[in-house]
Amino acid sequence: MSDESRPFRTAAVIPAAGRGVRLGPGAPKALRALNGTPMLVHAVRAMAASRSVSLVVVVAPPDGATEVKNLLAEHALPERTDFLVVPGGESRQESVKLGLDALPPGFDVVLVHDAARPLVPVDTVDAVIEAVRDGAPAVVPALPLADTVKQVEPRADGSPEPVVATPERSRLRAVQTPQGFDHATLVRAHESVTENVTDDASMIEQLGLPVVVVPGHEEAFKVTRPLDLVLAEAVLARRRANDGF
Ligand code: CTP
Ligand code: MG
Question: Which ligand ends up closest to the CA of 18?
Answer without folding.
Answer: 1
